[in-house]
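Revision sheet: structure tokens.
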Amino acid sequence: MAKRDRWGKAIICTGIGIIIVLMFILWNYQWKIDQEMVIPQAEIQPEITEGTIEGYEEESDLIAYMIYQIENKNLDYALRGCAIEELSRYFSMTYYIQYTEQYPDLSLIPPSDYGSPAYEAITVSRLSNDYALQLENMFQMLGEYGHLDLWDITENVPENPDGMYYIRRSEICEILGARSIREMLVVVNTDKGPVCMEWTLVRYKRFWKLLLFNPLDQYKDEKLNLVNKEIEPMPSLTVNMTEEDVLPSNYYYINDCSEEEPEHLLRRFLYYLQRQDVWSALTYYSLYEQNPAADMAYFQRQSQAALEVQNVLYRILLPGEEKQAWYLRDLKHRAEDFVEEISTAQMIYVDYYGFEVIEDRGNSMSCRVGCGYNREFRWINFEIVYKNGWKIERIGI
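Predicted:
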């Protein structure tokens, strides 16, 4: 009798195992079918000039490069000296939460802790616009001063730095994922006399990049400080940088795609997000009025689209209010778990529940799609327009 019971239990366990294996095979098959429905669309446009150097190992060379590009108002080349890709790959939200104990809302770039290609694309899109805005301000402010002649560069260190100064620097480096960080005092002679600026540089691996056009304690300031100085004339600073130097491109232009059916558009958009392919998802946004160009209009539209996509991912992946409140009670010690919770690797488990039209206006439409994740259902609202095919104008949550 006992032997028969053992055989019965073994048969049941074997049957359950076979069912689980079959379910996994069916799920994997459906996943592959879904992936074959979409073809990645994102490409770097061929008009972008290739870099002639990898980077600068000396701070003075990077600063000389930036001064030269600012004087010539070359937004394309100047952006390449900013820490755009580096922050997208190395910024640690875990350390940020642990050190600041602040809840990361949408004003903060998304985490790179788990190597998410989706969050990396969002950060590049957002920072391209942020740095472009600052550079446009620099073009305008320094443009009034005429020719720029680099006179002097020194590290700006307190006269008697205490231990907390170095601890804070170490913590900032951990958050940014950088090897080192330095605040630099830059003196430039102009047609109107010497001007002093305080820039913050960061080093990733061998090369320096510009983090801020301000000192660290003014990182939230949108205003860029230029200080006129009474300084005795000095010779131009000798650097290794040459006017022919071009750093590698660190921002992207993306294709302009559309679909003939609204539901097909949104299904493909969500499939791209499931693949963590934000660049291809953004191809369905209405970003271009004319041909792509390195101008503020493009960067602003791309940044806003990326922010909306980040909002969608957070809305899908963030836990319910009860668990969010649990994280908030002890953010410092639960930071790692929180960041893991919003990892985009979980997007493969998101289910699509259908498409609904809210208002059809002919060449524009308000609609929504239903998504399910972790036993929670969410509606995502879209505004779409017809421009030689349907495109996304805006995502509203």
